[in-house]
Every structure is written in structure tokens, then in C-alpha cells.
Inverse folding.
């Protein structure tokens, strides 16, 4: 039985992310004929964090600033450091996938880049470009250049601290679309922090059918058109109906991460027999 800790960073805010994560895990378990032991930790409301007894850790997205302390951050950083220290010597590696807010936290607390507020909120489905290292990585290399994903954030990770990144053994795997018409640095969109810990600024868990249903609800449609305009709304709907966009990313990123974790889990147990 593969054990998975989900670190819910949404702080009680309405979201699609947690539904998407559970849906992906259910689909993976069914495809692999596998039983999963899943526990959710409401980190920001209860300050509860998992121990090192889990095989896999998934950190969700969430609202608010990743740089303003709420009281649980030191314990969160200790958990990440414990996972990394464990993986340095133990044969049963702990795997982690950090999404959006969790990704920003990792970059900020380990001084891997500048984490600051964007000029305006990024919301929509955007092209993302793999780096040279990204094209050789199992979680990014199977995707086209560019690939597409849901991006919803008011914060950004820019100006990589290459000294800290190299000291950690990390690698930048993807960056955001080029915007030559604006004088802003391209944000970092994916990092392999270690061989076992991976993170994305975007939402690879987002599903096209669920998000399309969400966007077509009258209340949500009116709100998006009011905040972002009809052109942006129609672009999102058209992108969701394209099987080569976020559907492809959803099928080829988190599922591959989970398959890698399962293969390692099986190999470690086989070696222990």
C-alpha cells in the first residue's frame, strides 16, 4: 500500500485543486490496481504537518503571499529538510511534488530565487517552455515545446539564485512564455529541487472537463468576463477543448511522477525481501 500525504495549502478557500489531486490519485490507483493510503493535512488552518512515515508528499496550491509568515512555516521547512536528509542515505526515498503556492514556498525558504508579487494576476491557460535540462527530465521531456497548463497566481518566482540552486543539486526545468512586448523577466515554472522533489508554478493537476464545466457555470462565467474580458474567457474555453493542451499535461506529469514513486516503492520492497 503506497502512502500519500496531501498538504492542503488552500486555507479553506474554494478551489478546484484538491478535487483534481484526489481525482488524479483515484485514476492512478484504478489504473495500477493499487490501494492508496491517503491523508490530508490542513496545514495553514491547523498547522498540522505529516511525519516521515509517508512514501509520497503532494503540496497543493493556495491563496495569499508565500513570503508573509503565518506561524507554520518553520515546521514546514523542517519537514522538507527532513525529507532531503532522509533521501541522502536511506534506500526508501521519499518523493514530493509541490504545486504553485507550495512551489513558491520552497523557492523562497531555500533562497533559490526572488519571490515577489506580479504586476497583475496571471490567470488562464498559457504556453510553458522546457529548458534544455527540462527536455531530458522524465516529468517534462515527454511534453512538447511549448506545452500548456493552467496558471493562476498573483506571485512569481524570478531571478534564479544559481549558486543556491547548484548547491542543492537542483535544476530549472521550465520557464514561462516569452513576452517581448513587456519589460519583465520570464518566471521560473518548474524545478527539480532534488531527484525526488519536483515542483511547478502552474497547475498540472487541472483537468479539462472539470474546468470547462466550472467555467460554463453562469456565475463563474460572468465573474471571469467581468475581471478578464470576453476574449480571455473564450480563449480559455477553446484551449480546454483542445486535447493537446492541458489534458496532455495532466496525463503526462503527475501520473509519471506517481508511476516513478510506485516503481521505486516496489523496487525497495523487493530488495528488502
Amino acid at each position: 500500500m503506497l502512502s500519500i500525504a496531501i498538504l492542503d495549502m488552500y486555507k479553506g478557500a474554494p478551489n478546484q485543486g484538491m478535487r483534481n489531486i484526489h481525482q488524479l490519485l483515484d485514476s492512478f490507483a484504478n489504473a495500477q490496481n493499487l490501494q492508496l493510503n491517503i491523508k490530508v493535512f490542513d496545514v495553514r488552518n491547523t498547522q498540522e504537518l505529516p511525519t516521515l512515515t509517508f512514501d509520497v508528499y503532494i503540496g497543493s496550491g493556495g491563496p495569499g503571499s508565500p513570503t508573509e509568515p503565518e506561524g507554520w512555516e518553520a515546521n514546514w521547512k523542517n519537514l522538507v529538510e527532513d525529507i532531503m536528509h532522509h533521501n541522502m542515505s536511506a534506500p526508501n526515498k521519499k518523493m514530493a511534488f509541490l504545486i504553485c503556492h507550495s512551489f513558491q514556498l520552497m523557492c523562497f525558504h531555500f533562497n533559490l530565487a526572488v519571490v515577489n508579487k506580479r504586476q497583475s494576476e496571471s490567470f488562464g491557460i498559457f504556453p510553458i517552455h522546457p529548458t534544455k535540462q527540462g527536455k531530458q527530465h522524465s516529468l517534462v521531456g515527454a511534453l512538447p515545446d511549448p506545452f500548456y497548463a493552467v496558471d493562476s497566481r498573483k506571485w512569481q518566482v524570478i531571478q534564479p539564485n544559481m549558486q543556491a540552486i547548484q548547491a542543492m543539486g537542483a535544476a530549472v526545468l521550465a520557464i514561462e512564455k516569452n513576452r517581448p512586448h513587456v519589460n519583465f523577466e520570464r518566471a521560473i515554472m518548474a524545478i527539480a529541487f532534488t531527484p525526488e522533489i519536483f515542483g511547478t508554478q502552474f497547475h498540472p493537476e487541472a483537468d479539462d472537463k472539470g474546468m470547462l464545466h466550472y467555467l460554463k457555470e453562469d456565475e463563474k462565467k460572468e465573474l471571469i468576463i467581468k475581471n478578464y474580458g470576453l476574449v480571455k474567457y473564450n480563449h480559455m474555453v477553446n484551449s480546454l477543448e483542445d486535447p493537446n493542451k492541458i489534458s496532455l499535461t495532466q496525463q503526462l506529469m503527475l501520473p509519471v511522477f506517481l508511476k516513478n514513486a510506485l516503481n521505486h516503492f516496489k523496487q525497495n520492497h523487493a530488495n528488502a525481501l
Summary: The first helix runs from residue 17 to 32. The radius of gyration is 18 Å. The chain has a mean pLDDT of 93. The chain has one domain: 2-207+248-272.
